Amino acid sequence: MHMPLQDHPNPQVSRFLQKGFSEITEGIVGKALHALCVTGVFQLNTFYTNTLINMYSTFGDIKYAQHVFDKMLDRNDASWNNMMSGYVRVGWYHEAMKFFCYMFENGVRPSSYVVASLVTACDRSGCMTEGALQIHGYVVKYGLMSNVFVGTSLLHFYGTHGSVFEANKLFEEIEEPNIVSWTSLMVCYADNGHTTEVLNIYRHLRQTTLICNENTMATVIKTCGMFGDTTMGYQILGDVVKSGLDTSSVSVANSLISLFGNYDSVDEASCVFNNMKERDTISWNSIITATAHNGRFEESLGHFFWMRRAHTKTNYITISALLPACGSAQHLKWGKGLHGLIIKSGLESNVCVCNSLLSMYSQAGSPKDAEFVFHTMPERDLISWNSMMASHVEDGKYSHAVRLLIEMLKTRKTTNYVTFTTALSACYNLEKLKIAHAFVVHYGLHHNIIIGNTLVTMYGKFGLMAEAQKVCKIMPERDVVTWNTLIGGHADNTDPNAALESFNLLRREGLLSNYITIVNLLGACLSPDYLLKHGMPIHAHIVVAGFELNTYVQSSLITMYAQCGELNASNFIFDVLANKNSSTWNAILSANAHYGPGEEALKFIARMRNDGVDLDQFSFSVALATIGNLTVLDEGQQLHSWIIKLGFESNEYVLNATMDMYGKCGEIDDVFRILPLPKSRSQRSWNILISALARHGFFRQATKAFQEMLDIGLRPDHVTFVSLLSACSHGGLVDEGLAYFSSMTTEFGIPTGIEHCVCIIDLLGRSGRLAEAEAFIDKMPVPPNDLVWRSLLAACKIHGNLELGRKAADHLLELDSSDDSAYVLYSNVCASNQRWGDVENVRKQMESQSLKKRPACSWIKLKNTVTTFGMGDQFHTQTAQIYSKLEELRKMTREEGYVPDTSYALQDTDEEQKEHNLWNHSERIALAFGLINCPEGSTIRIYKNLRVCGDCHSVFKLVSKIVGRKITVRDSYRFHHFNGGKCSCSDYW
């Protein structure tokens, strides 16, 4: 448009002008030259004035440029072009449009350069779409569509605004598209999600004679990164190397780093980065993102350190890339350091950075810090609100998430399907779910497939499968996730017929099932009744459909046969597997642990060890749980040693399982020995601690632990309250227990489960408040089950309430007429009321149904031998010594003031015989055996399959004092630690 400055006839002016342009800071020399021209030292002609306009607009002094333009007597195309580009450069977009109109008023026909600049102004303004459409009309009218500059600018405009069809049409009208045109078209398709088309355009481009520039290759590389197709990516890399743009171009190298980062090829990304001759902020951001995304946290921090040393500007993208890598408790300290840097750098007002901070604190288990960030954000976008809601849900603060949704709706904040997906998952009761569902319909999101799938999941969670099916039926589109969710819901609600029906509907819709479908189907088969009708046909389908080699399916088959009572079939399936991995080993281990003799599960642990199979956290957790149920402390200690040797002692799941094992084996001191510090404890660790304290009779310590858990900011869950309410029940803390139960739903938003109700009935029943217990059953939010009536019946036995006991027994027998516990407990109620005739009638009813009372037994382990005793057992080789020791204990306890409580002898005999029967209880025989055989000074550990009787409890207290020994008894309810004449349960159990 004008000749280069250095080639101008006046070399002195050219030199000064060139100098003026190089002084980018203020253009001082250029302004001085302008002053010389104005004063007449140099002649101010068209060339000089055009150059001055260009110079001033470059420096951002558009008013000076406008002044020079207005004073010009002779303007050429360059004058108008320079002035228009100046307006666009400094962001005066509306002034650019006015200038365009001014050209028309002065009879000047805008050139293609001016039109292209004006389209750019409309594009950048973000609010001049109508103006761009008018310019398009002008272009068509004056035949400028074929001009490559005009066409490309319009193409870019339409692409930016999502009009892919218009952009493609414009491209076709350009007579000779240049590389910028091709690149703009690719960017248009890429920005609008048509990634496949980008590569098609690139293939067509390669068939032309045009040479790709760095922007073209950067766009293609970025698109490849979205595909995850490494073969395609390396083909494009070959083109880049051939073009010589691999590390010589900063933008191409940056795209390559991102590409390799997406492919999890961090070493290749680092190679590109290290070979770059020049780096910008994007280069550093790209390598930091690549290393952080692939879990190489230390490397990403190292790059960040060198980035700051290289004086490269840190922007919000840098910080946002680093923060997700700090989303763990291990790296949280670095995240907090970055938070400090954010404040120091003034980035705390950036929404993107704050959202990343919020997400980091949530992932790292610091919900209070996440809330602080959210509430101090100067501006919040939809991501902020959605992230905070998700954080509350992740933290179990469902009521907080619901309140946040209400706040969003009240303030008319923008919502989307993510908002309501999170809100639905936060619905902790049916009422909230139905309200959230109503809002979904109100906002027109009920047709969204993700929302639909979430609704199906939530209705299934509450057992309302009819509602879940209704949602599924009205969904305009269903995918395999929809049907998997529905099948899983039917499985969880033990309805295999409905699960199979849903599976058949999935197939009718032409959808392909996946391994999750099969796993959910197998999960619906829960009893022997289902095996022949459902389980085996599903197994046949697995073979036909080719799923039999899938590890998850193999594991589910093993589990299905075991829970249907065919453990031998599970073992057979496992034995014939050609390739056994940790998943199938864990499945067979779990099957034997849950559905077979626990000892067999421990044998599988030994087999795994001998076969060189790597045990993982699941293997150890199942083994520890089995040991806890068997209460074999020696084996537990051996396994714990092995865990330490293999380095699993710090694994959260294994640590919790170890604590639970020691708690169930009676070693509460060992629980405290390995218990993490309060701030390092997970929610499950707190639950296990509260449960162990409750089981061992430390009721006040259990409530204190609960309060300590709240004080450090952890939220209780369903299991926490089961343990807490159990502690209150067995400790006689009635009012506290009722208060905790009330706060469970009102304060913590935890739905009432049947386990919580059983605890409350037990709490009221043990304390003698039987009328309140009965009233509570009538108002329960969940239907009463056998555990509810059994707890009430047991309480009636303690307090001798015959009438209510009969009612509870009737309800138990309605649920299961062959329930032997109903007959036994009611018989005991009758016996405690001296109703011997009724006792005899109950026994006759049991005989008519071929039911037998489960015999009481107690056992004790010495070295590697478990010795079991029944009532009045006479078969042990040391029988004479045992009964001699019992007689000795009888005399010693009498001397200490023991008076037998014959109300615990539930037979219609004389008092002498009743006392004799009490001394024949299995736990006393085991005690005598333990005193004879256990090393002096050691703790005697006795286990009983039923509740220890009150008279035996009194005897054990006295014996612990008389002989100076610690005695631990674990009955079907809890541990009793006897020492010095006292019991840990404080005589309330």
Helix-strand layout with pairing:
Layout lengths: L10 H12 L5 H11 L7 H14 L2 H10 L5 H14 L2 H13 L6 H14 L3 H13 L6 H13 L3 H10 L5 H13 L3 H12 L7 H14 L2 H14 L6 H13 L3 H9 L6 H13 L3 H13 L6 H7 L9 H14 L5 H13 L3 H10 L5 H13 L3 H13 L6 H9 L4 H13 L6 H13 L3 H10 L5 H13 L3 H13 L6 H9 L4 H18 L5 H13 L3 H10 L5 H14 L2 H13 L6 H14 L2 H14 L5 H13 L3 H7 L8 H13 L3 H13 L6 H14 L2 H13 L7 H13 L3 H9 L7 H14 L2 H14 L4 H13 L3 H13 L8 E6 L2 E6 L8 H17 L15 H8 L3 H12 L6 E5 L5 H14 L3 E4 L4 E5 L2 E2 L6
Parallel strand pairs: 3-4
Antiparallel strand pairs: 1-2, 1-3, 4-5, 5-6
Helix pairs in contact: 1-2, 3-4, 3-5, 4-5, 5-6, 5-7, 6-7, 7-8, 7-9, 9-10, 9-11, 10-11, 11-12, 11-13, 12-13, 13-14, 13-15, 15-16, 15-17, 16-17, 17-18, 17-19, 19-21, 20-21, 21-22, 21-23, 22-23, 23-24, 23-25, 24-25, 25-27, 26-27, 27-28, 27-29, 28-29, 29-30, 29-31, 31-33, 32-33, 33-34, ...
Describe this structure in words.
With 989 residues, this protein is mainly alpha-helical. The protein has 54 helices and six strands. The chain has a six-stranded mixed β-sheet with strand order 2-1-3-4-5-6, covered by helices on one side. A hairpin with a 2-residue loop joins strand 5 and strand 6. Helix 17 runs antiparallel to helix 18 (297-309) and helix 41 (683-695) runs antiparallel to helix 42 (699-711). The longest helix has 18 residues, at 528-545. The chain is elongated and about 135 Å long. Residues 1-10, 16-30 and 36-43 have low confidence and may be disordered.
